[in-house]
Amino acid sequence: MNKSIMIVGVGGQGTLLASRILGNVAIKQGFDVKVSEVHGMSQRGGSVVTYVRYGEKVYAPIIDKGGADIILAFEQLEAYRYLDYLKNDGKLIVNTQQIDPMPVIIGAEQYPENILGKIEKKGVSMISVDATKLALEAGNVKAVNVALIGVLASKMNIDKQVWLDVIKETVPEKFYEVNVSAFELGYNCK
Asked: Could you report the per-residue pLDDT of 151-170, keeping only the tens digit for each?
């Protein structure tokens, strides 16, 4: 059975590293894996979306609306923006962080209020976590991505050691300890 996971966030949050970790974990499990990234002005805080699909045989990397088993959202507004892609029985994992998009920064719009409440009202199976706090606790705010990967890993039926091995192979050695710490904090987050 194929799995489709979307990773959504804004430029600079580490969504691409997260998708690389997830894709490499799936490869180690013997799955056919397709990864595709779609991003706008990622260097300027624009929306970044990565599709990771894996299974016995995957023919295309893109996930259609209503096709994602899991959405891993690095920011609330991005979670809300891509909610239509989640399957009816899918799961949303969302960082509680709010990052103002450019229209809000320049004063043309306001950041929407109570996004997580609006998502809950739609009956979505959601796990919200302050991954920014976890990353800071691990020692580096940039480890938000790996803290969120830890939360994701705890909900998947893949041995934890596989995740740790892939993190070791994927992140630069000087950031290994902080990323393992962030992963563990996310993995053990209730």
From this structure: 999 999 999 999 999 999 99
